[in-house]
C-alpha cells in the first residue's frame, strides 16, 4: 500500500527550494510498457532568471532518450508597487524503457547562481509491452500519429512502414493546434539519409484550415510532403522536424494587460522505415534498377540513311515508380552499325499519390555498310513490388536501309579533298618590272581588332559568370546578397519610420540572418542562433564581429517578450548597417 502511495506522489512535482528558485521533476506515468514513452519534465521557476543552463541528466542505463523539447513563459506581476518578473522554463525529455522491471531516474542537477540544485529520484515500473495500465499522456512533446493529442502537436506520418528497396514511401508533416500562435519558425529539417528524395509540397506560407477529430475542432496546416525512394536496405531512421513556436497566453490578472508569450520547441516523432532488399534469386540480366510498373517502346526518326547519315533510335521507358533511378538499357549489337552513347531526357509528375512519367534514351546509329539493318528487340526487367517478382518487357524489332555508305567512309578517311591538275604558279622572270608589294596601314586600323579582342574577352568572362551562377550555389548567393540586402534594409527602415517596433525587429532579424546566409552560404532557416554563431567561428570570423551579431540577434528576439525593454530601434538599425559593412 505504501509503495502505491509513493508512486502516486511522484506524479506531482518534487520540490527543492533555495531562495527564489524552484527546481522540480515529474513524470507522466510511473508504470509503462516496454518501449512505451515516459515523459520526464524538469521545471525551473524563479524571479529574473535570465539565461539559465540546461539541467544535467543523470546516467540513464535503463532508458533510451527519444527526443527533447523546451518551453518558456514570462509574466510580470505587481507587488508592493513594484513589478516582479517571473520565469517558468520546462525541459521535456521523452524516455523509452529498455528492460522489464524497476527502473530509476536518478537526481537531476541544475547549476545557478553558484549553487547546485537537485531533484529526488523517480522509480518507474516497466511491464511487458501491452500490459501497462492506461494513463493520461502529456500533450508535449508530440509522439506522432494521425490523431493529435492535446492542444498543440507536430504530426509526422508515413503511408508505409515497410517497403522494398527503391519502392516509393510518402512522408507528411502537419501542425495541429487549438491555441493562438504569435510566431513560428523552422528549427530543424528532418534528414532523409539513405533515401532518394522527391519533394511534393513545401509550405511557402502558413495557411490554417479546420478539421474535427473525435469531436474536437483543430486548426491544421500541412508543412511538408515528400516522396522517398530508399537506396539501401535495413531499418532507416528519419530524424524529427523541429519548430520554434510562440504561443499567446491569456492575461492572468487586471495588471497583465497584454498577456504573456510562451515559447517552445515543438518536435515530431522520429519515423522508422523497414527496407526489404530486392531478391537476388532469379534476377534477370536485363534488370536496370526499376522498382514499380513500367513499359518500353522504341522508334527510329526515319528508315533511310544516305551517305552514313546518323539515324536516331529513341527508347522510352514509361510507368510509375523510381523513374529517375533507371539506368540505360543494353542495346544488342547491330552488325554493320556503330552505336553511340545516348542522350537522356526524363519527365515525372506526382499524380494519384505516386510518381509517374517517362525516361528517354536517344541513341545515334551510324551505318558502316550499305543494305538493310535490323534493330533487335530491346529488353528491360524491373521489380514489381505488388506482385513481388521481376517482370520483363521488350520492344518490337525495327529496321532501316543505308545507302552510299562506302563513299562516305572513303571521303571521311581522305579528309574530303582531292587535288587534280597542277598547283604550280610560275615566278615572273622580269624582276625589273615587279611592283613593290609592301603594304602599310595607319594605326587606326588596329582599333577594330583591339575592340574585337576586348569584346571576346568580356563575353567569355560573362559566360563564365553566368555558368558559375547556375552551378555554384554559394557564388550565386554571394552575388545576390547585396541586392537582397538593400531591399531588406528598406523594409526595416519603413517599419522604423512608422514606429512599428515588433515588425521592425522581425525585419532587422531577416536582414542579419539573410545577409549571413547569403554571404557565407548557410541555411539559416534550419539553424538556431547558437549554431549560426558556431558556424561563423568555424569560418574564423573575428570575435568582436561575432559578439556584435550575437547582441543584435538577441535584441531582435526580445520582441517575443512583451515585458522586456529593447534598445532604441534607430540605434539598432545603425549598428546593424555598420556590422554588415564590416562583414
Please provide the count of β strands.
31
Q: What's the overall average pLDDT, rounded? A: 79
Number of individual domains: 4
CATH architectural type of the largest domain: Sandwich
Portion of residues within helices: 10-25%
- Class by alpha and beta content: alpha+beta
Which descriptor suits the 3D outline? flat
Order of strands in the sheet with the most strands? 1-2-4-6-5-20-19-14
CATH topology of the largest domain: Jelly Rolls
Q: How many DSSP helices?
A: 8
CATH uppermost class of the largest domain: Mainly Beta
Descriptive account of the structure:
It is a single chain. This protein is α+β, with helices and mostly antiparallel strands and 583 residues long. The chain has four domains: 1-137, Immunoglobulin-like (Sandwich); 139-277, Jelly Rolls (Sandwich); 287-407, Immunoglobulin-like; 473-582. It is built from eight helices and 31 strands. It has helices spanning 2-9, 405-414, 446-471, 473-497, 501-520, 529-538, 543-557, 569-582, and strands at residues 14-18, 21-27, 31-33, 38-47, 63-79, 82-97, 101-105, 109-112, 115-118, 122-127, 152-158, 162-164, 169-177, 181-188, 195-202, 209-213, 216-230, 234-238, 242-249, 260-267, 271-276, 287-300, 304-306, 311-321, 337-339, 343-351, 354-367, 371-375, 379-384, 389-394, 398-403. The strands form seven sheets. An eight-stranded antiparallel beta sheet has the order 1-2-4-6-5-20-19-14, with no helix packed on it. A hairpin with a 2-residue loop joins β26 and β27 (354-367). The longest helix has 26 residues, at 446-471. Mean pLDDT is 79; it is low at 1-19, 130-148, 253-258 and 414-423.
Amino acid at each position: 500500500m505504501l509503495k502505491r502511495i509513493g508512486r502516486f506522489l511522484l506524479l506531482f512535482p518534487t520540490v527543492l527550494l533555495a531562495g527564489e528558485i524552484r527546481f522540480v521533476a515529474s513524470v507522466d506515468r510511473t508504470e509503462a510498457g516496454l518501449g512505451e514513452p515516459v515523459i520526464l519534465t524538469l521545471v525551473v521557476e524563479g524571479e529574473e532568471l535570465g539565461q539559465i543552463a540546461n539541467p544535467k541528466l543523470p546516467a540513464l542505463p535503463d532508458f533510451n532518450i527519444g527526443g527533447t523539447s523546451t518551453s518558456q513563459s514570462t509574466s510580470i506581476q505587481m507587488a508592493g508597487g513594484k513589478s516582479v518578473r517571473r520565469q517558468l522554463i520546462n525541459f521535456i525529455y521523452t524516455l523509452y524503457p529498455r528492460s522489464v522491471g524497476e527502473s530509476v531516474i536518478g537526481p537531476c542537477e541544475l547549476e545557478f547562481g553558484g549553487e547546485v540544485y537537485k531533484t529526488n529520484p523517480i522509480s518507474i515500473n516497466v511491464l511487458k509491452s501491452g500490459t501497462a495500465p492506461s494513463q493520461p499522456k502529456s500533450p508535449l512533446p508530440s509522439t506522432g500519429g494521425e490523431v493529435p493529442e492535446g492542444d498543440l502537436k507536430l504530426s509526422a506520418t508515413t503511408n508505409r512502414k515497410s517497403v522494398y528497396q527503391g519502392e516509393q514511401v510518402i512522408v507528411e508533416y502537419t501542425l495541429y493546434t487549438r491555441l493562438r500562435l504569435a510566431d513560428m519558425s523552422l528549427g530543424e529539417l528532418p534528414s532523409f539519409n539513405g533515401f532518394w528524395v522527391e519533394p511534393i509540397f513545401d509550405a511557402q506560407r502558413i495557411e490554417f484550415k479546420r478539421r474535427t477529430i473525435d469531436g474536437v475542432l483543430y486548426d491544421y496546416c500541412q508543412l511538408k510532403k515528400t516522396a522517398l525512394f530508399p537506396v539501401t536496405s535495413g531499418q532507416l531512421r528519419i530524424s524529427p522536424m523541429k519548430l520554434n513556436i510562440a504561443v499567446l497566453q491569456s492575461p492572468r490578472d487586471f495588471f497583465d494587460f497584454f498577456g504573456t508569450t510562451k515559447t517552445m520547441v515543438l518536435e515530431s516523432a522520429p519515423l522508422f522505415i523497414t527496407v526489404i532488399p530486392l531478391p537476388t534469386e532469379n534476377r534477370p540480366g536485363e534488370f536496370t534498377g526499376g522498382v514499380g510498373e513500367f513499359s518500353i517502346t522504341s522508334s527510329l526518326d526515319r528508315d533511310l540513311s544516305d551517305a552514313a547519315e546518323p539515324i536516331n533510335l529513341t527508347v522510352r521507358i514509361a510507368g510509375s515508380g523510381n523513374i529517375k533511378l533507371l539506368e540505360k538499357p543494353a542495346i544488342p549489337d547491330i552488325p554493320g552499325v556503330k552505336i553511340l552513347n545516348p542522350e537522356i531526357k526524363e519527365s515525372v509528375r506526382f499524380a494519384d499519390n505516386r510518381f509517374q512519367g517517362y525516361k528517354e534514351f536517344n541513341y545515334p546509329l551510324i551505318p558502316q555498310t550499305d543494305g538493310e539493318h535490323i534493330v533487335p528487340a530491346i529488353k528491360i526487367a524491373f521489380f514489381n513490388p505488388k506482385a513481388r517478382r521481376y517482370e520483363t518487357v521488350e520492344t518490337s524489332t525495327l529496321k532501316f536501309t543505308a545507302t552510299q555508305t562506302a563513299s562516305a567512309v572513303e571521303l571521311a578517311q581522305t579528309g574530303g579533298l582531292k587535288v587534280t591538275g597542277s598547283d604550280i604558279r610560275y615566278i615572273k622572270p622580269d624582276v625589273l618590272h615587279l611592283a613593290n608589294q609592301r603594304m602599310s596601314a595607319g594605326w587606326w586600323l588596329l582599333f577594330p581588332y583591339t575592340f574585337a579582342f576586348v569584346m571576346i574577352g568580356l563575353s567569355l568572362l560573362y559566360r563564365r559568370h553566368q555558368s558559375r551562377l547556375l552551378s555554384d550555389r554559394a557564388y550565386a548567393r554571394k552575388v545576390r546578397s547585396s541586392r537582397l540586402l538593400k531591399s531588406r534594409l528598406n523594409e526595416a527602415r519603413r517599419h522604423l519610420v512608422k514606429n512599428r517596433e515588433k515588425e521592425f525587429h522581425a525585419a532587422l532579424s531577416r536582414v542579419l540572418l539573410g545577409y549571413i546566409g547569403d554571404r557565407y552560404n548557410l541555411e539559416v532557416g534550419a539553424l538556431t542562433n547558437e549554431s549560426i554563431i558556431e558556424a561563423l567561428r568555424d569560418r574564423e570570423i573575428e570575435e568582436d564581429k561575432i559578439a556584435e551579431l550575437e547582441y543584435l540577434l538577441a535584441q531582435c528576439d526580445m520582441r517575443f517578450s512583451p515585458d522586456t525593454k529593447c534598445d532604441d530601434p534607430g540605434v539598432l538599425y545603425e549598428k546593424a548597417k555598420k556590422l554588415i559593412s564590416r562583414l
